[in-house]
Amino acid sequence: MTLEAKSVIPALLGWYARSRRDLPWRHNVTPYRVWLSEIMLQQTTVPAVIPYFLKFTRDYPDIHALAAAPQEAVLRDWAGLGYYSRARNLHACAKLVSKSLGGTFPDTPEDLRKLPGIGPYTAGAIAALAFGRRASVVDGNVERVIARLCALETPLPAVKSEIRSIAETFFLDPANTDPAALPQAFMDLGASICTAATPLCAACPVAKNCKARKLGIAAQLPRRLKKADRPHRAGRVYVMTDRTGRVLLERRPDKGLLGGMAGLPTTDWLDGKTPPPPLAQFAADAVPETVRHVFTHFALTLTVHQGRMDDAPEGYYWDYPAHAGLPTVFKKALKLLQAA
Ligand code: SF4
Question: Which of 172, 241, 248, 264 has the fewest Cβ atoms within 10 angstroms?
């Protein structure tokens, strides 16, 4: 064990015991609840996840209940959390664990990684948090804390492999006496004290071990290469309503972006800033405002068309907006018209 780990581990565990965040998935810890929270937390913030976690654990209290739910219901309940492939994988994983594994999650990172939607980070997190196994768990918070503790000046993403091997010296060492708590201690430190913009070094339990603090460069780490600008796409979206206030919807194809979700009718989304021509089947004028939405790999601008019709064309159906389970990009189009 390195000198840093020998003093950092007890200091962090002691601080965590006193100061840990009270999060719903830290109560009644079970593999199901840990897995659910970790899938929800991928690419999303803790405050955004909490209401979804509470709703899912109320409506689907165990893996069998989630596995038995229709996929449409799971996608509808997930709507607004983004990255919808996670919801499809969540459901596929629930069905597999419920039916083929008798409802019991595997307890090693290697076996957990064989399940749908579980990558190296999530496998390590479940093995550590749910089963108390020593596993390396490196999320953005852990990355930042380690880059600062060790004053790593190589920019992200090149520095990631160095961070991962340093993380292993902490997480896998036999001196890690509480494998479930240590990753969460790192995460909480990153979330509440070693924050991205202004680290609160005066309150930090490992300040005396921190090389970046000594060098006065804490707030500059980890360094990052400037991301290339996101490419842009443009399209048109249609908000067609009937006389009762229902909106016209389609079920998006299972494969691809927002796959399997309910959606408003749209054109293709073309590269560049010019949308394709309007869809001939809808008599609907464009409104002056547009919807902007940023996906992981591109930014989208949608021209919004508004119109009335009474019969749903083939392939479309009517529903009330509140029941539809629409992804955020389409909710923005509806909200724009409500505000107009
Ligand atoms: Fe982060 Fe400051 Fe603590 Fe170093 S001393 S780990 S920079 S909060």
Answer: 172
- Cβ of residue 199 lying under 6 Å from some atom of ligand 1: yes
Q: At 237, which helix (H) or strand (E)?
A: strand 232-241
Ligand 1 centre to CA of 232 (Å) is 38
Alpha helix stretches (DSSP H) within the chain: 3-19, 31-41, 46-59, 63-68, 71-78, 85-100, 109-112, 120-131, 140-149, 160-171, 181-192, 211-215, 328-339
Q: What is the pLDDT of residues 168-212, one digit of tens each?
A: 999 998 889 999 999 999 999 999 999 999 999 999 999 999 999
Containing 240, the helix (H) or strand (E) segment is strand 232-241
Q: How far is the CA of 57 from the centre of ligand 1 (A)?
A: 35
**Which pTM does this prediction carry?**
0.77
The amino acid sitting at 311 is D
pLDDT digits (tens, 9 = 90+) for 219-237: 999 998 876 778 999 999 9
40 closest CA partner among 92, 81, 91: 81
Q: How far apart are CA 162 and CA 278, in angstroms?
A: 51
CB burial of 3-33 (b: ≥16 within 10 Å; e: otherwise) equals ebbeebbebbbebbeeeeeeeebeeeeebbb
Q: Tokens in use for 84? A: 């919808």
Q: How far is the CA of 148 from the centre of ligand 1 (A)?
A: 6
Question: How far is residue 144 from each of residues 141, 162, 198, 266, 316, measured CA to CA in Å?
Answer: 5, 12, 12, 40, 47
Query: What does the DSSP 8-state code read for residue 316?
Result: -
Question: Which of ligand 1's atoms lies nearest the C-alpha of 204?
Answer: 3
